[in-house]
Amino acid sequence: MDYCLLVILMKYEVKDEKKDLLSEPIKHIDIKTFNAIPLIEAFDHMAFQSRNLANACKIYDRMLVDKDCSIILCLAGSLVSAGLKNIIVDMIRHAMVDVIVSTGAIIVDQDFFEGLGFQHYRGEVRVDDSKLQKMHVDRIYDTYIDEDDLRVCDMTIKKIADGLPSRPYSSREFIVEMGRYLQKNGKNPDSFVLEAYKNEVPIFCPAFSDSSAGFGLVFHQHERKNNYLTIDSVKDFRELTELKVQSKQTGLFMIGGGVPKNFVQDTVVAADILGIDATMHKYAIQLTVADERDGALSGSTLKEANSWGKVDTGYEQMVFSEATITFPLLVSFAYHKGTWKKRKQQKLNQLFQ
Amino acid sequence: MDYCLLVILMKYEVKDEKKDLLSEPIKHIDIKTFNAIPLIEAFDHMAFQSRNLANACKIYDRMLVDKDCSIILCLAGSLVSAGLKNIIVDMIRHAMVDVIVSTGAIIVDQDFFEGLGFQHYRGEVRVDDSKLQKMHVDRIYDTYIDEDDLRVCDMTIKKIADGLPSRPYSSREFIVEMGRYLQKNGKNPDSFVLEAYKNEVPIFCPAFSDSSAGFGLVFHQHERKNNYLTIDSVKDFRELTELKVQSKQTGLFMIGGGVPKNFVQDTVVAADILGIDATMHKYAIQLTVADERDGALSGSTLKEANSWGKVDTGYEQMVFSEATITFPLLVSFAYHKGTWKKRKQQKLNQLFQ
Amino acid sequence: MDYCLLVILMKYEVKDEKKDLLSEPIKHIDIKTFNAIPLIEAFDHMAFQSRNLANACKIYDRMLVDKDCSIILCLAGSLVSAGLKNIIVDMIRHAMVDVIVSTGAIIVDQDFFEGLGFQHYRGEVRVDDSKLQKMHVDRIYDTYIDEDDLRVCDMTIKKIADGLPSRPYSSREFIVEMGRYLQKNGKNPDSFVLEAYKNEVPIFCPAFSDSSAGFGLVFHQHERKNNYLTIDSVKDFRELTELKVQSKQTGLFMIGGGVPKNFVQDTVVAADILGIDATMHKYAIQLTVADERDGALSGSTLKEANSWGKVDTGYEQMVFSEATITFPLLVSFAYHKGTWKKRKQQKLNQLFQ
Amino acid sequence: MDYCLLVILMKYEVKDEKKDLLSEPIKHIDIKTFNAIPLIEAFDHMAFQSRNLANACKIYDRMLVDKDCSIILCLAGSLVSAGLKNIIVDMIRHAMVDVIVSTGAIIVDQDFFEGLGFQHYRGEVRVDDSKLQKMHVDRIYDTYIDEDDLRVCDMTIKKIADGLPSRPYSSREFIVEMGRYLQKNGKNPDSFVLEAYKNEVPIFCPAFSDSSAGFGLVFHQHERKNNYLTIDSVKDFRELTELKVQSKQTGLFMIGGGVPKNFVQDTVVAADILGIDATMHKYAIQLTVADERDGALSGSTLKEANSWGKVDTGYEQMVFSEATITFPLLVSFAYHKGTWKKRKQQKLNQLFQ
Fold first, then answer.
1. Which residue of B has its CA nearest to D50?
2. Alpha-carbon distances, residue A64 vs A192, A249, A264 (angstroms)
């Protein structure tokens, strides 16, 4: 009989192990440092998703040329933890985006979180998750977050809420306050919540409580019992519809699908219901890995959105490839084209003052 | 030279063409009429997604056996327009679900819409969407909806809102009112908004305004100027957390991903932040086509959720296959097992009275 | 400092551990034991992939009705190791298929392998693969194979080759010899290589050496130095084109994509090049998870194949869902419809005698 | 009643319409004209597929550094029609690849085809395929091919076969003859069949007849009746195994999956069966959109391949993103790193002379 005797002797210090796990911070890509124009121009003569990406680049540049167009950036997926944050910061700084509609996690757990001085870390996919859980390390695919840091973020939201008058807020209004907080207390200038605040770019989270903000706000309401602030999701929709109505033309730049994609498309219908004749979104690009075959919204084609009267045809393109690769290329192309130099900040937050 | 002269003479009546397009209603599958047990038991000895589906069936049955367990059904994707509505109605009728968390479209545009007597129709994928748009026909992959019917649905939401006191509502509270409306004015008994109302099953929509409800509520607020009702998404989160805390154990039955998946998982953390020691979700199954490779939430594994302390390990299973096929099989299995016969309606809406 | 001292003492017998790993054989589903007709008829009034599956069922039944039609089954993916083998055996026994085109692995490593008395086993996805490797356990996603058994299979192929005259063979001819071998020496009557042999159903493997057969045949040639048999892939193509030409109509039933899908579609063009006026494939269904967006063959649409003059339009349907779930439903539907009762075995191997 | 009278008058010349469709040739990307190093180095600090791509780049560079390593490029998917041809030409010219294993379509219908002076064209996805068919225009997703050109390609294969001695050939041997033909008669210097011929880089097509070559060779055999050449797929496998045995180390660079992926991995086992102690493939990278969940080979993980004793662990990486975007970035990175400058052409075709 083949017996096998195995003795493993392990000694480790738990704290040090956590420190080891959280030792390599995610660094955000800087699209200004490489010029994607030659690559994209080559892609334009090729096929499949490379050509689709080139076409999306051309449509985005066309949005930037069109002086009547307000550009709405829709964000879904773990984009900031993946290292894409500074692209969005740069888009705001260079007047390449006018409105942002996002999932809550991107805004609160990821961007605002980093604005407070915290970081995301390189991790592994194949790992013992229950061990991570014991160390308070949260995993997003191949990245790690220190859960103790996240709790500080939650509590900061509560603190902001505690200092505000008790009334219904749109998520946009509350995110303005988060930007204000970062301007005073932030520890990292590269936050698009902060940058949007400074440039008066409205940010909407149609499902705001579905994030770290939810934790802080639930605690705020729980503690106050009554006389607390509320987040009125109807107000979000009213404000975004107002923005749609005020813009002569609109262009959608969507990363991922989900609620942001649906919400912003619906504004055309909402305007119509209010008796206002708003145009369809004239331009629309989407970077996604979802496809149309399961009938779900995220992968639904922009042609399908045309049947709903939401998106015009002619300047619409889906790119079926993952955003960590395509988003940097797309914005680097547009940045180096320089069309934004003739554009002005639309400062659309001023509409609501 | 080969010249080709083509003359097409078309005469048609627009109204008749629309009627033709909307002539074959979607019929909802009845999982009571076929017994999936032999199929699922065979799947259990096979491989890949068939075996994963069999394991998910076993876990769902285990949730039904566990007397301490509250079962939370999370819905995302165009499930009702696809013919899956009556499965959910049957789950409520037979005490197979205790809480529902859903996207707004499923609740308002699809289920409530059908409760008002409207229908969805078989359509085509390859079609001229701009032509559909002119006829007020909206497309979801291979199904059609009459946009004029949808407007009636929007306005019904407004009417309900107009009749309610002006205060912040959770989406759950408003959906109770929708159920009450259907009981009085509904034209189709097969609506799970109605059935949940009757059986006091709470329904949450964390992004309620991102739906046909949004249109009606925006109109309501717009007309009233002030003194209108609001939808407080924080209240949603507080109430769902309260439900989590009151349940000894919880099991998640997720179709698709998106906001419902994230929202319900977050309740464990929310409870913790309020200083209450809530258990992780003990059981979790998800039917999805998304995968983990793009780092987004919808395809994130249930193992990953364990690192966040949200989902326990041991009884969790993802089935990577489309829900129009897997959902009927799964619930037919559980229905014919009959475990639900020993279960009682938990009537969790009573918690909030 | 929190030191943690961990001592693990493990004693195990390697052979027993391997036996444990290989303790739960995959069992093949029997589509005769459940009737999928009610389910599929419900699917026909629904949407997305359930309706596509229902339409594929109707097209397959139409192939069975059409007396002029030869039905060609194309197989790719680990179908036999997943428990789908007996469906194919039943299709042959009940005259529901006339020609098979397959990857080598399905024919040799999986079906012939089981015909020799070996089995596949339930396994795990998340496992230490290097440990498996040391134990001679091969993994396919969540199934295990005993590598030592596979070597016996390889050597059996060599033995068959050693006993045959030295000349070029089509894969079809060699697979006939494998069937003959199983009839004499097989240990499991449920093998479709055997069943096809008995019913004179031709089986083609366009990439025959890319399988366990390759190992045996390389050894055969290596040992002989010269005077060995060869596998002429051109002969395969000639023979399959001959079959296409002899059939008035053809219907394709494809599972997965890859070489079998391409090979069989190409026969229409091959006939044309030989100056013979062959019809396009009149019917075509495909069960696959691949999609068209990367331009690769496996996910290319059957409409696209029409541009090549390979597949006719009207009776073609792709079902985008995994075959372990959809294949049993599809064939159970057709089996219980009973259309095959009026069909005769076409015994197409006789064409080459 | 709303009557709508529509009269369309169309006049077009069929030949001109075809010319219009085939007016924009695909242009092949030149990875020497842009430097992907800064982008890839940024990706290395990010997450998801961007980081996986960066890791694959590092592994490929490691293969180029390792003097003992033979680099085997595996090709599947419509890569050449998509504009990726010159990347492969450049890899050969700069000693960045030592062996190629490919599907037949890439070698014959696409590369050799362009070597004869023909081209691929930009096309559309949403198009009337039956109309294309009538015009002899073949579609691959969003590209077009003139079917009349393809027939010339088929007949050229026949002509080459007609001029060769009648004996069994490996696909490698036949492809050498195709390179020889192009050197004399080719009309485009950018062909990797030609470039491989000049640099004595072996090219294998394990399913050679499953391509335009099949058409020509069937015609050759059909016309000759007997005394024709054959393609012995066993010989392919023997030769590739011989190459594996002769190389101290091997690295796999796989684009797509399918037969090439499987075939080259199997050589380790084949060597073992011949009693030769070959090492596992030391390095392995794969660019693919397939995933592991359906158990099929194309998406099977390289960890899984380790259980089979085929691929070593440590230096293996899958990149789940489409190759038209990732392949140019990967090879541009390696090209500009310049490691290839210290490498020599291995000229492995000499092994078989």
1. B294
2. 20, 12, 19
H-helix or E-strand spanning residue C17: helix C14-21
Contact C210 D207 (CB under 8 A): yes
pTM for the full model? 0.95
Q: Which of C27, C30, C53 sits opposite B325 (nearest CB)?
A: C53
Partners of residue D46 in chain B, C-beta under 8 Å: none
Strand partners, B137: B146
- Which residue out of B159, B310, B341, B344 is catalytically annotated? B310
Number of residues that make up chain C: 353
Which chain B residues contact residue C29 at CB under 8 A?
A: 42-43, 45-46
CA distance C138 to C148: 10
A159, A310, A337, A344: which is the annotated catalytic residue?
A310
- CA distance from start to end of chain C: 83
Output the six-digit token pair for D241.
Answer: 């195994």
**Distance, CA of D116 to CA of D159 (rounded, Å):** 13
Q: Give the pLDDT score at A7.
A: 33
Question: Rounded distance, CA B165 to CA B171, Å?
Answer: 15
Q: Chain D: list its partners (3+ Cβ pairs within 8 Å).
A: A, B, C
- Measure the CA–CA gap between D108 and D102, rounded to whole angstroms: 10
Decide if D46 and A321 are in contact by the 8 Å CB cutoff: no
CB C322 to CB B42 under 8 A?
no
- Candidates A2, A13, A48; nearest CB to C1: A13
Question: Which residues 6+ apart lie within 8 Å of A278 measured at CB?
Answer: A244, A245, A267, A268, A271, A272
- Contact assignment for A53 to D325 by CB distance below 8 Å: yes
Shortest Cα distance, chain A CAs vs residue C244, angstroms? 32
pLDDT tens by residue, D229-240: 999 999 999 999
C-alpha torsion angle, residues B283, B289, B292, B295 (rounded to 10): -110
The answer, yes or no, to whether residue B320 has pLDDT greater than 50, is yes
pLDDT in tens, B221-239: 999 988 999 999 999 999 9
Classified as helix, coil or strand, C194 is helix
**pLDDT in tens for each of the 353 residues of chain A?**
333 333 333 334 566 889 999 999 999 999 999 999 999 999 999 999 999 999 999 999 999 999 999 999 999 999 999 999 999 999 999 999 999 999 999 999 999 999 999 999 999 998 999 999 999 999 999 999 999 999 999 999 999 999 999 999 999 999 999 999 999 999 999 999 999 999 999 999 999 999 999 999 999 999 998 899 999 999 999 999 999 999 999 999 999 999 999 999 999 999 999 999 899 999 999 999 998 889 999 999 999 999 999 999 999 999 999 999 999 999 999 999 999 999 999 999 999 98
Rounded Cα–Cα distance for residues B207 and B72 (Å): 17
Say whether B122 and C43 touch across the interface (CB within 8 A). Answer: no
Instruction: Name the DSSP class of B279.
Output: P
Among D158, D229, D232, which would you mutate to test the C interface (most chain C Cβ atoms within 10 Å of its Cβ)? D232
Q: List the single residue in C with minimal CA-CA distance to D208.
A: C233
- Determine the distance in angstroms separating the CA of D34 from the nearest CA of chain A, rounded to an integer: 7
Known catalytic residues of C? 310
CB contact under 8 A, D4 and B11: yes
CA distance A240 to A205: 11
Name the residue among D1, D6, D11 with its Cβ closest to that of B3.
D11
The three-class DSSP label of residue B139 is strand
Whether B291 and D295 lie within 8 Å, measured CB to CB: no
Amino acid identity of residue C222, one-letter, is: H
Q: Please, are residues B82 and A293 in contact by the beta-carbon 8 Å criterion?
A: no
CA C57/CA C36 separation, integer angstroms? 10
ipTM above 0.90, yes or no: yes
- Beta strands C143-146 and C137-140 are antiparallel
